Amino acid sequence: MPKPKTPPPQKPEDIFLEPLDEALSRRYLAYALSTITARALPDVRDGLKPVHRRILYAMRQMRLNPNGGFKKSAKVVGEVMGNYHPHGDQAIYDAMVRLVQDFSVRVPLIDGQGNFGNIDGDNAAAMRYTESRLTDAAALLLDGIDEDAVDFRDTYDGEGKEPVVLPAAFPNMLANGANGIAVGMATSIPPHNPAELIDASLHLIKTPNARTETLLGFVRGPDFPTGGVLIEPADSMIEAYATGRGGFRLRARWTTEDLGRGRYQIVVTEIPFQVQKSKLIEKIAELIQTKKLPAVADIRDESAEDIRLIIEPRAGTIEAAAVMESLFRQSELETRFPLNLNVLDASGAPRVMGLRDALVAYNEHRKDVLVRRSRFRLGKIAERLEILGGLLIAYLNLDEVIRIIRYEDDPKAELIKKFKLSDVQAEAILNMRLRNLRKLEEMEIKAEDAELKKEQKELEALLASDEAQWKRIADELREVRKIFDPKSAVGRRRTTVEDAPAAAEINLDQLIEKEPVTVILSEKGWVRTMKGHVEDKADIKYKEGDDEAFLIKAMTTDRLMIFGTDGKFYTLDVKDLPGGRGHGEPIRLMIDLGNDQTAAAAFLYKGDRRFLVASTTGHGFLVKEEDCLSATRKGKQVLNVGDGAEACVCRPADGDMIATVGENKKFLVFDLAETPEMTRGKGVALQKFHDGGLSDAKVFSKNEGLTWIDRSGRVQTIDDWKSYVGKRAQSGRIAPKGFPSNRKFGPWS
Asked: How far apart are the C-alpha atoms of 747 and 740, rounded to whole Å?
């Protein structure tokens, strides 16, 4: 076994003591900053992350111009990875694919040939199968990069140079948007219409102090490549664009098609941005199957090149707006796109900007590019004028120049000495071809010299005037705007801005066939329905050891209320209860009723009643029926029961007196007015018990008298109920002779 290699000894000066928390903090901060600046956040000036910028620059270096041919994407990825971006090839290719997809970016920067994925969420083909080249928009971003328009830095291996930022002849950051997650921060920028952004930039040049509200007169909100309808309120949009944080509600675009005979279908032609069509359809189909979209019968995809989703309503009498409103609430046909304009400013620092700040930063970048390109051009003009000056001297002294070149041993030095030329001028004369010695060439040189001097004067005037610079930038922006003209295919606004329509409600009764059924709930918690109103209980069968708990005559449009011994009310639609043959299903599959809990009461919801609810401790109160409705399977806690206690009473409060009976057979009658109405709580003491607890309670009218139902199902009347009248919370007297031994007043309907 070979000996492990011993690491080389470290020099004492390379070792220093540092607290662990400080060392970790410093290294984590360095990592976080690296992630933020080199990966996640776009530059406000060109709207690109380093990987996108490197891809575009590498493709330019490969001469993949818009009017040129395509090359394999694998070759582009290899060039980017080898020279500029030392990361995985798949990460580079994924970034490249996004710049091709016209459903991912508002203005594609790469022209792709082959399968680059689709809106269904299908992945692009492997890079060896696809080809690519730059688009005209990418050419605008790169325009002037060879004219010292931007700074360059060393590549990762120090063997080359790469641009720090691109010249960006159009506001790409806001036009195409960006998404990214860094360490401790993120960015989310929606795409916008390029022409609108340019109009806003032009207005800022003219009126530097323009407010966000004014700019939104030009930029009407995001303009997503997939279209859709923006329904965000104006005040919310102003605040979002002013602060750089907010969000936008985006809905699918839809219309209706008449099918005749009172029938119609809904056609969705545009879906929200970044929503995968196939997953959207799967989700809606699942909602239909689980009966969470009662208004929708079916959905199918008839899309070809354009999106065409067909939604069939369950009934022709339902308004289409109501159907779509239910879909907007439960599916991604409506989304909220966040705005977090967190970008790198010109100094490379992360910063959250508003719309105005971002456009100002872009304009300042264009001014910097203009100044740098102008100075670069001045340098080139000066170099050319120097050469032209030397050539003109040569033409004026042509015979002497020929003599010197022919006979002198060092003609260059002699030319410099004789005519007081610079080294560059002498070199240009020596490199001049004999055919250029004709008279016409001299005239051309003089014309070029005059033209360059004129341009030189104009550029010097431009650099000397801030006003002239902004005028030039405005002219350049107007020329770019012609490319993104709103009337053209690329410049046409795709996302419309509308006011949110009033929420349309669906009448579920229109969707459900109203039929009589009998709801059966057994003692062991099995529930089912039988068609029709069953009159003969002998026709109802139960599992061995099980028996009837509640038998309720209902309609399929009714809602079933269950009051559990846990003090919760549960709500179920009768239409959703299991039917057919058999014993039904356990009620606990439909509601979150505990295994140690049972149904204390079951009834149909009417909405206009009050109930007396009470627990075995003898505490209770009155509650409105509407306050008992539950929207989830978890139920709604109304009566609070303590440890060891259970809810045992839920009866209609139809009357003016309350009768209570305890497990000790004590009987008490008191005025209903003594019991408060509440929405939730423990309640007040109805009857006092020294042993046992409350068994049952009932509300009755003085005029009608107090009754109970005996074992034979006959109604019995308590003639002397007034002798049991007392105050609430008293112990009461022994129940009258003949009162049921189970200490119950009997069922209610």
From this structure: 13
CA distance linking residue 256 with residue 264, whole number of Å:
7
For residue range 393-430, list pLDDT tens digits in order. 888 888 888 898 888 889 889 888 888 888 888 888 88
Q: Starting at the edge strand that comes first in sequence, how are the strands of the sheet with 559-564 ordered?
A: 599-604, 559-564, 568-573, 636-637
By annotation, the residues acting in catalysis are: 129
Domain ranges of the chain: 17-189, 253-332, 508-734
323-327, 332-336, 555-559, range with greatest mean pLDDT? 332-336
Secondary structure, 3-state, 472-517? HHHHHHHHHHHHCCCCCCCCCCCCEECCCCCCCCCCHHHCCCCCEE
Give the CATH H-level superfamily of domain 17-189. Topoisomerase II, domain 5 (3.90.199.10)
Residue 174: which H helix or E strand, with range?
helix 172-176
**Residue ranges of the alpha helices (H) in 397-503?**
398-407, 411-419, 423-430, 439-464, 466-483
Question: Does position 749 have pLDDT exceeding 50, yes or no?
Answer: no
Neighbour count for residue 206 (Cβ, 10 Å)? 10
Rounded distance between C-alpha atoms, residue 72 and residue 54, angstroms: 17
Given a cut of 70, is residue 456 above it in pLDDT?
yes
Residue 172: how many CA atoms within 13 Å on its side-chain side? 28
Q: Which CATH class is domain 253-332?
A: alpha beta
Contact criterion met (CB below 8 Å) for 275 and 335? yes
Residue 225 and residue 105 in contact, taking contact as beta carbons nearer than 8 Å: yes
